[in-house]
Amino acid sequence: MKNYNSRTRTLVTGGAGFLGSHLCERLLSDGHDVICLDNFFTGTKDNIVHLLGNPHFELMRHDVTFPLYVEMDEIYNLACPASPIHYQHDPVQTTKTSVHGAINMLGLAKRTGARVFQASTSEVYGDPEVHPQPESYWGKVNPIGPRSCYDEGKRCAETLFFDYQRQHSLDIKVVRIFNTYGPRMHPNDGRVVSNFIVQALKGEDITIYGDGQQSRSFCYVDDMIEGFVRMMNSEAGFAGPVNMGNPGEFTMLELAEQVLKIVGGKSKLAYHTLPTDDPKQRQPDIALAKEKLDWEPTVALEDGLKETVAYFKELLD
Ligand code: NAD
Ligand code: UDP
Ligand code: UDP
């Protein structure tokens, strides 16, 4: 049920984070009334400071593990630390954020009749035996390891979403996000794109883990946000889960080469040991997103990296 004016009232949890801040921007430009909720664990006001003067934007300091009573039409649930360094800092809180956060946002959606979107992850596939991973693959996840707080938390959140759909007929939308990069990534969260760019800009060695032949697929943030919005606006009854990511696959050596080409400078490659459980490959199968949402990424890695380099250059100056 919409309020008396025609703007959609939209809640973005984790709205001060990397993806959340881009989503808030996009929703404002689409004419929504946006509430950005964040506890600033990994997010920062700097990411949304330029939105604070907009009368249709509201910032709320709140932790999703606690109940929230507001009137909403749409909820995007993004709150959760996303990088291993961050989510392993307080693993119990990470699971609580995924599980209690999902329960609260689903309870809110149930009471208000809002459509509710969950930012899930390719990590639900764990260390996959199937490549690339279609949504029908159930995954191979260690339930008791150091990554489990994130992987199992996100899996349980998906379970809750589908049980609220079955039990309470909620209108849910679940997206499994694969590696995404762009401006406002954290400069020191240990992710490969931010690491390589920051190292290159500082003239430090580029840290290649293992032989650098492992591959990943990197999606530029604007493409991902377009996918989120298409999913939220998709036909009622299409709940997903749906993979979103860029299928273009690059080895870490190729990524280092591209970053060095853009940044220039004198950095050399330095080889380090490969972390345990580091997947050799990860690539999304996005056939479902193409079919149902007519969505696929459009930004080439080189172009996205240029934007990201420009952001980090300014940040480090
Ligand atoms: P991020 O760390 O920049 O954003 C997460 C935001 O959630 C931060 O602003 C943080 O302060 C906030 N937050 C954390 N715990 C909270 C809590 N208990 N209450 C309220 N706010 C809380 O990470 P991101 O990359 O923007 O990720 C956003 C979402 O997308 C996450 O759910 C993440 O799991 C998912 N995701 C991201 C990627 C990626 O490549 N970036 C990949 C897969 C999934
Ligand atoms: N909740 C919330 N806001 C609301 C409604 C519910 O935060 O507007 C939270 C509340 O903590 C509740 C949870 O969502 O415990 C699940 O709600 P639900 O109605 O599914 O179950 P309840 O626990 O109330 O039986
Ligand atoms: N990696 C690397 N150097 C770094 C950081 C990461 O070679 O400084 C590698 C890492 O071992 C992995 C890949 O880059 O194989 C992607 O790592 P990231 O943590 O960004 O994402 P994920 O492993 O979750 O896909």
Largest sheet: 7 strands, parallel
Residues in β-strands, percent: 15-25%
Structural class determined from secondary elements: alpha/beta
Task: Describe the strand arrangement of the main beta sheet, using strand numbers.
Answer: 3-2-1-4-5-6-11
Catalogue the ligands.
nicotinamide-adenine-dinucleotide, uridine-5'-diphosphate
Helix proportion range = 25-40%
* Number of helical regions: 9
Give the SSE string.
EHEEEHHEHEEHEEEHEEHEHH
Stretches where pLDDT is under 50 for at least 5 consecutive residues are none
Tell me, rounded to a whole number, the average pLDDT: 95
End-to-end separation in angstroms reads 47 Å
Number of strands: 13
* Coarse shape: globular
Radius of gyration: 19 Å
Describe the protein.
The chain is 37% helix and 17% strand. It has 317 residues and is an alpha/beta fold. It has a 7-stranded parallel β-sheet, sandwiched between helices. Strands 7-10 form a two-stranded parallel ribbon. Strands 8-13 form a two-stranded parallel ribbon. The longest helix is centred in the first third of the chain and has 22 residues, at 91-112. The chain starts with 8 loop residues before the first strand and ends with a helix. The mean pLDDT is 95. The structure holds nicotinamide-adenine-dinucleotide (NAD) and uridine-5'-diphosphate (2 copies). The site of one uridine-5'-diphosphate has 14 residues, from α5 and β8.
